[in-house]
Amino acid sequence: MKALVSLIALVITGALYGQTDTTPTAIAAFDKLTWNFGDVPQNKQSSHAFYLFNKGTAPLIITSAIGTGGGQLPSYNREPILPGDSSPVRVIYGAFNIGMFTKVVIVSTNAGDFTLTIKGNVFKVDSTCFRFEKTLHDFGTFAKTDRLTCEFTVQNTGRYPLFIDKVNSSSGNMMFMLPKSPILVGDSGFIIALIIPNLGTFYKTGTVFIDGYAKPIILTIKGEATPNEPIILSPSQK
């Protein structure tokens, strides 16, 4: 009888220890923990999104994301990440100081803490880093057309990629197409101006902003549009 009781107790104990814990649990995993921005112009704001995946069975919650060392600004979604879903943790870097940088962001979740690392090299852009073939285009006198185009060539004469941020137009009937960015070292890019001219003399400008360069570049376009058809004066006008 004693042996039977011992056997039953052993079976019950084994069954208890053999049970699997089915409590829902969040399991966090990032797609990557390090991102290299490479060469970044000074003062150019750069950003990268690290994706956090929930591989568990319970909602995953980010409780905080804190940058250390200054210059980086993390942001994240406050909503719980459901099982099987993902959410970005975006890190923005201001690139204020010239030179190599390595910054970290500590992300805390209900499934543990993670360290994200961003790094790169901030370089200074000055007037020796690029060269415009011209900054003035004169169409002269021409018969009015529906549209005019001209292009300005800019060459990267520096040691790092050149980024054209934007070109602001002084006129509503002129727009600019930017070169593919960045312009690699030794290569050239083209800024194309599209103008819908009115009759008469015109003088228009485009303000070019180059990432990392404090002083904008002014492009000037001018000309005089005349009627397509000759003007026939009435007898009273002769």
Features:
238 residues; mainly beta; Immunoglobulin-like; 2 domains; 4-stranded antiparallel sheet; 4-stranded mixed sheet; 1 helix; 16 strands; 7% helix; 51% strand
Task: Describe it.
The protein starts with a helix and ends in a 12-residue tail after the last strand. The chain is 7% helix and 51% strand. The strands form four sheets. A four-stranded antiparallel sheet has the order 1-3-6-5, with no helix packed on it. A four-stranded mixed sheet has the order 2-8-7-4, with no helix packed on it. The protein is mainly beta and 238 residues long. The chain folds into two domains: 26-123, Sandwich (Immunoglobulin-like); 127-226, Immunoglobulins (Immunoglobulin-like, Sandwich), CATH 2.60.40.10.
Summarize the structure.
By secondary structure, this protein is mainly beta. The chain has 1 helix and 16 strands. The protein has one helix at residues 2-17; strands spanning 28-30, 34-41, 46-54, 62-68, 72-76, 86-93, 99-109, 112-123, 130-132, 136-143, 148-156, 164-169, 174-177, 188-195, 200-210, 217-226.
What's the structural blueprint in terms of helices and strands?
Layout: H1 2-17, E1 28-30, E2 34-41, E3 46-54, E4 62-68, E5 72-76, E6 86-93, E7 99-109, E8 112-123, E9 130-132, E10 136-143, E11 148-156, E12 164-169, E13 174-177, E14 188-195, E15 200-210, E16 217-226
Parallel strand pairs: 2-8, 10-16
Antiparallel strand pairs: 1-3, 3-6, 4-7, 5-6, 7-8, 9-11, 11-14, 12-15, 13-14, 15-16
